[in-house]
Amino acid sequence: MSASEARVALNAGNSQFAKEIARMSIRTLLKFFSLILLFGYGAVASAADAGYRLSSGDVIKVNVFGEPDLSFAEIRLNDAGTFSYPFVGEVQAKGKTTGEIEKLLTLKLKDGYLVDPRVSVSVINYREFYISGEVKLPGGYPYQPGLTLDRAIALAGGLSERASTKRMTIIRGADSTRKPEKATLDTLVNPGDTINIEQGFF
């Protein structure tokens, strides 16, 4: 092989190597951004859990460090907003935050069962929100932290041709008076809320 042929082969090899590095870099960047999105969502969900008041239909996870018999991947709150737990019995969770449930279980387990229980409670599935009126697919849909009315409408297939974005109301699931509030596309939706989209005047 001549010197010129060797240089051509070397350049071709370098070019192929550079392409492989570029492909690896793209894959690495994609993984990096995926992790950012994953942890970002986790942070939003954790922040939402902190002030969120539990109610019937929510599904929680209870973990007691080092105690598999006291740890449960899924516990669904019944219609009364309660759940049954070993050594504790019926736990009233409705209206409480996950932090309050953690403290309650910790105190109960300390009372003659465990010396230093480390309890964590998190929401893994929120109860549904409901949307009716002028949307293509009215009904109940799974709640997602940070959900806006605009996104809720998208989940319900979008607006019908007769819908009016100026005539939208929302009834809060946590509001015992069930009084409709005027809503906009940017209004935040909570678990258990009921949205209604009315017709416009044409």
CATH fold descriptor of the largest domain: Outer membrane lipoprotein wza fold like
Mean pLDDT figure = 82
- Helix/strand-derived category reads alpha+beta
Largest sheet: 5 strands, mixed
Give a topology summary:
Blueprint: H1 3-51, E1 59-64, E2 72-76, E3 82-85, E4 89-92, H2 98-110, E5 119-125, E6 129-133, E7 139-141, H3 149-155, E8 163-171, E9 181-182, E10 194-199
Parallel strand pairs: 6-10
Antiparallel strand pairs: 1-2, 1-5, 3-4, 6-7, 8-9, 8-10
Question: How would you sum up this structure, described in words?
Answer:
The chain is built from 3 helices and 10 strands. It has 202 residues and is of the alpha+beta class. A hairpin with a 7-residue loop joins strand 1 and strand 2. The chain is elongated, with a radius of gyration of 26 Å. One of its GO terms (molecular function) is polysaccharide transmembrane transporter activity. Keywords: Signal. InterPro entries: Poly_export (IPR049712), Poly_export_N (IPR003715), Soluble_ligand-bd (IPR019554).
Summarize the structure in short:
The protein has helices at 3-51, 98-110, 149-155; strands at 59-64, 72-76, 82-85, 89-92, 119-125, 129-133, 139-141, 163-171, 181-182, 194-199.
Essential attributes:
signal, 202 residues, alpha+beta, 25% strand, polysaccharide transmembrane transporter activity, 3-stranded antiparallel sheet, wza like fold, Poly_export_N, Outer membrane lipoprotein wza fold like, Polysaccharide export outer membrane protein, Poly_export, 5-stranded mixed sheet
